[in-house]
Amino acid sequence: MPAKPVIAIVGRPNVGKSTLFNRIAGKRKAIVIDEPGATRDRNYMDCIWNGKAFTLIDTGGFEPTAREEIFVQVREQTNLAIEEADIILFMLDAKEGLTPSDTVIDRLLRGQGKNIFYVANKVDGEKNENLAADFYRLGMERVFTISARHGLGLNELLSAVTDYLPFTQDQDKSTTDDKHIKIAIVGKPNVGKSSLINLISGSKRAIATPTPGTTRDAVDMTIKVGGKNYLLIDTAGIRKKNKISLILEKYSVIQALKSINLCDIALILIDAEDGITEQDAKIAGLAYEHGKACIIAVNKWDKIKKDNTTVGKYVESIKEKIKFMDFAPIIFISALTGLRASKIFPLIDEIYDQYIKRINTSDLNSFLEYTVKKNSLPRYQSKQVRIFYTTQVGIKPPSFVFFVSSAKGIHFSYRRYLINQIRDKFNFNYVPLKIIFRKKSD
Q: Domains in the chain, please, with CATH?
């Protein structure tokens, strides 16, 4: 299954980029994949429009010539988003008309060789419609006129944009890649992703370097270990060597997103010298929200001074910062020396077996009867909540539907109780579980 195409919204400050982002994400026809999890302050969203899947990115206001540090940083962020994007929505302000900054941005975008859609926003009346005509001086064939605030013109815009996208494949259909266990190696820049892929593949095909932001292509590599096939998906490093700023690490989320969309298991690398950072937690949250099985690999363990409490302190710190991923095993490795590298694939195999495991419905309902007796359901609106039966409806992650008398009557603490009981009973210790409560039809 190919990675989802990336669509980036680009433009000057205050042209309505975030309004358009929120409008597209909130459209009834756009199915927004946004389950509660750990990632906050997001600037991306997975969407489907008319059967076409894509990832939408909202960028900061782009000031091509501003020298203030905040604008320099935003410009760096936007440049990276443009580089990652397959399609660009270049937003213009119809009320202000064409500005010198618009012209500079247009020149920059045209040099990227990407599909560009010119979008004149704030077209709320005939006067602004006439102003939008001014943008044709940039030399494009068409300007899409919209009002992001009022939702005008969005159907036409999105239909044109998604004509360039492939139809979303049913993830349950068999593909050639289904013969491989797909592993995404993700993490912030310079955490050792390429060094690890070189180590476990026995190859120098990936360029390993200690310099953050090395220019290189992403690497997908098929290997066989112990008679099993694996597809290693390596996240490309930040590709521009110059003007690298720490704030660019935020966009490792965008880079990781492409690999996470493709994988079965995300191998999340953490730098032992830095400890778990906010950026690590965001990447972990992204994997969690996409229902991926994960391994937390603390790399560069050979560089840490240790005593008999060091491992425990690291584990405690990791579990505190990514509480939502308490199921993920934690291993301490060194991609440089090979420390514990031999444990990676046996752990992947164990996790994958759980990730694709199916439980017989009769076994589930026998378990349910015992579990409810052990911890009775609460009352809701003066009535006893009942669970009638349950069944497994999916894998990757294992997903279960519980048919109940009142879905609203199931408290989150009881949901957590059921998840923990399923884990213990059926050995789902290392994978995320999805539970859905559905009101039983009379």
A: 6-162 (3.40.50.300), 176-355 (3.40.50.300), 361-439 (3.30.300.20)
